[in-house]
Amino acid sequence: MSYTQQSKDCSETSSVEQLEVVIVGAGFAGMYMLHRTRQLGLSARVYETGNGVGGTWYWNRYPGARCDVESMQYSYQFSDELQQEWEWSEKYSPQPDILRYADHVADRFDLRRDIQFNTRVKSAIFNEITRRWDIETSNGNQVSAAFCVMATGCLSSPNTPEFVGLSDYKGEVYHTGKWPQEDIDFSGMRVGVIGTGSSAIQSIPIFASQADHLYVFQRTPNYTIPARNAPLDPEEVKEIKADYAGLRARAKTKPVGLDLPIPTQGALETSPEDRFQEFESKWQNGGVGFMAAFKDLLFEETANETAADFVRQKIRETVDDPKTAELLSPNNIIGCKRLCVDTGYWEAFNRANVSLIDVSRSPIERISENGLITDSREYPLDAIVFATGFDAMTGALLNVDIRGCDGRTLKDKWSKGPKTYLGLSTTDFPNLFTITGPGSPSVLTNMLPSIEQHVEWITDCITYMRANGMQCIEANQEAENDWVEHVNQVARLSLRSTCSSWYVGANIEGKVRVFMPYIGGFPKYVEKCNEVVANDYDGFTLS
Ligand code: N01
């Protein structure tokens, strides 16, 4: 629908398309938001920068990219037909399988007709006369929407450190978070990987098997646990599908939104022999469940040290060269930075064509025409891979010029760290919602159930507003302050808030250090969201 609307200063008129909801991003959050919005009979459009759906799984197509949450749980549950019919083939799905699933969902629910691809939202400005959002895209589209929903993802704004000389480099340059769609093969090439986070740890074994020589530039070593990925057992799948609802319900009672056993014993309450057995059993099982060996690993440093020692011993047993093993061994809190999950990572360093370069002692100084220069030598390279992560949680939101009441920018409001009510909404920005925004459990949980809970909360809220003749909803300042204080308070209880990770924004120069996700757990968080609704949107003003 398009009609003539008076502009803010009343001096001119413009023809602007009117929508109920604009959704930014066509990842799992944006797709479900679109589906639910359309079920309510509201007009909606998704704007998506890429030329396909899938978000994270659209962009992160580097070799070895794989989800470290089990496939049977890393999937939508809103449609029982979908979850019964879809067949995952591996315990942990590789990126192409997840992207295929995203494409299937888009087709099955006929989503593409309301998604405009290859279009970046440049700005979203709250118009105080119309009480609507004026949205402008990179290709000059302008629309007005009653609600603006940011489904931009938590790890979607790639971070490329500004090394001097990068533009002079004559070789190929890649970022794991923005991998090209065509096949890249490093056979016969000298390749440098900068970074040793999850993306590097997953891709290094593959690069090592292709490249003539692989140089891994490591600033901080990371803990990683073998995935022990395997084809899914059809009998196990049958059993899960016979009571999928049961599995989903159990998962919702767990802090991370995953049906995993919850430990009841502390590491220091057990004998060294029993402790070792428990770590060994979790190690053999593989994956992030390793941290569920004992209940105190993320709360007591001495308990944490027992887990860290166990993993360091595994590194020494796996890596042939003692010096390389030592360099690969982290000496910080295990699980403080996001735990990595790998297939053959340390083993890759036993190959003659792989070199580990310690850039904590000998930092990267610059990039030359031919390669990378540290303070000790030049490494000639045919390709450089930045596995340098993301401006997490706030980066993608602040990449859009978002302005609320009185022209206040979100960038300005969050200059001392993100401030939200429930990670869903922020004062001074009426009718703007963030899916898995800072201040919500998001990255500390299984993302799919967290996304679904947010989408359902937002669409229920819009339904309530429509039923009660309300036009605007805005978080109250006091409610926001209390929530931010609560998020910070709970974060201080966990060792996770104590290190230089992307959770606290430490990986981005100049970013304020604040623990951004809500660590109180999925069930507590959902209870709070439901309580707010039960009390007539307590903490919000509806007008
Ligand atoms: O990014 P990271 P990532 N000079 O920030 C290094 C999710 N994910 O893309 O630690 C030299 O973890 C940096 O070094 P340091 C998952 O949540 C999930 O790997 O800052 N090095 C670090 O080693 C994950 O946590 C999966 O000293 C520099 C690396 O780059 C999140 O995404 C798979 C540097 C960045 O590591 C991010 O992971 C992949 C510099 N100037 C990702 N700047 C799954 O399996 C940065 N580094 C689901």
Walkthrough of the structure:
- The protein folds into two domains: about 5-155 and about 390-540, 3-Layer(bba) Sandwich (FAD/NAD(P)-binding domain), CATH 3.50.50.60; about 165-385, no CATH class.
- The model is unreliable at about 1-15 (pLDDT under 50).
- It has helices spanning about 30-40, 55-60, 80-85, 95-110, 200-210, 235-240, 245-250, 270-285, 300-320, 320-330, 345-350, 395-400, 410-415, 445-465, 475-490, 520-535, and strands at about 1-5, 15-25, 45, 115, 120-125, 130-135, 140-150, 170-175, 190-195, 215-220, 225, 340, 355-360, 365, 370-375, 380, 385, 400-405, 430-435, 475, 540.
- The two termini are about 25 Å apart.
- With about 550 residues, the protein is of the alpha/beta class.
- The chain is globular.
- It is built from 16 helices and 21 strands.
- The structure holds 3-acetylpyridine adenine dinucleotide.
- 3-acetylpyridine adenine dinucleotide binds near residues 67, 155, 197 and 389.
